[in-house]
Design goal:
Blueprint lengths: L2 H5 L12 E2 H23 L3 H21 L3 E4 L3 E7 L2 E6 L3 E4 L5 E6 L3 E4 L4 E2 L2 E2 L5 E3 L2 E2 L5 E4 L5 E12 L2 H6 L4 H19 L15 H16 L4 E13 L1 H41 L6 H16 L12
Antiparallel strand pairs: 1-5, 2-5, 3-4, 3-6, 7-13, 8-11, 9-10, 12-13, 13-14
């Protein structure tokens, strides 16, 4: 099958199934069992001509009432059932309540509750023995940061938390094999792709992973949602939970950041010192406190800059000559 043919494949749209209340059907089943029991007992005491007819009628009615019991279903809040008749999708019921449907329907349960997970976490499936008893419950390990190269080629460790919920039961069940695993894999892929598009840190106002957290998280949510549209999943929130340089370059990058911080601090100190010197010279000239020639002004400027820009306390030298 070509890619064009695969794109033309029709998707399964969610349909709302109007099911009847289960309380009326429950009363009908109970009356059916009572009537079946009455026919069997009455047929056993009837004449031979009516005996078989009433007994077989009671057995048939009891069998029908028993089969109807498989049509009952109770739906809790934020739960849904997808109904199939011999493989044909008939619709979904998402409103909570007690209902009765065709007993030959297959009822696939799906949760509509809000769920979250952290990328890099491992899911251990539920295990049952031969008798159907649960011997190991479903567990999830803590998330492990993913190692990926950023736009500048620096290895970084990154992980994210994704909050999502199912909004289309038909797509979640029939468009993908396992929608929970699909969400986890696609979220991991989107996170890696995002980290490769941006640098860890930037000095030229480019969007960076560390400096533009809000913008990066918004992009991450949009990227994940674009990958999960066919799975009937809505991404409520996606945010970065861990971001750091990989251990092999963390020390070198820390030194670089410290050097950048020192340069930035020195730049600000020099700008402030020049402004203070200019203000001092203007003040001396305006108030005619002292008259200085160019050599004296240069000497005064040099001394003031040394005092203001030095990272240690200066020791004054008093000229008494």
């Amino acid at each position: 099958m070509t890619s064009a043919q695969s794109k033309e494949r029709p998707t399964i749209d969610e349909k709302k199934y109007n099911s009847m209340s289960g309380w009326g059907a429950l009363i009908g089943c109970l009356l059916g069992f009572a009537l079946a029991l009455y026919l069997i007992i009455t047929g056993a005491n009837a004449t031979p001509e009516e005996n078989l007819t009433m007994i077989f009628g009671g057995i048939f009615l009891g069998l029908v009432s028993f089969i109807c019991l498989f049509g009952f279903m109770a739906i809790a809040p934020n739960q849904a059932r997808a109904l199939l008749l011999f493989g044909d999708y008939k619709g979904s019921v998402s409103e909570s309540g007690f209902y009765w449907v065709n007993p030959f329907f297959s009822k696939k349960k799906i949760s509509l509750r809000i769920r979250n997970f952290e990328t890099g976490s491992l899911m251990t499936p539920e295990q049952k023995d031969a008798n159907g008893r649960v011997i190991q419950t479903k567990t999830r390990s803590s998330g492990k940061p993913s190692k990926v190269n950023d736009k500048d080629g620096n290895p970084v460790d990154i992980s994210a938390i994704v909050v999502w919920r199912v909004v289309n039961t038909a797509e979640a069940l029939f468009e993908v094999d396992d929608y929970e695993d699909f969400v986890a894999v696609q979220s991991e892929a989107a996170l890696r792709n995002l980290a490769q598009r941006h640098p860890y840190d930037s000095e030229d106002r480019e969007i960076s992973l560390r400096g533009n957290t809000v913008e990066v998280c918004d992009q991450l949510g949009e990227d994940i949602q674009a990958r999960l549209d066919k799975a009937g999943v809505d991404v409520i929130e996606a945010r970065i939970s861990h971001l750091a340089y990989s251990p092999e370059i963390a020390a070198a990058m820390l030194q670089r950041q410290q050097a950048q911080a020192v340069v930035a601090a020195r730049t600000q100190i020099v700008e402030g010192a020049v402004g203070m010197v200019e203000m001092a010279l203007d003040h001396l000239k305006r108030d005619e406190i002292v008259t200085m020639n160019e050599d004296q002004r240069s000497h005064l400027v040099s001394n003031l800059l040394v005092v203001l820009c030095s990272d240690r306390h200066t020791q004054p030298v008093v000229n008494i000559g």
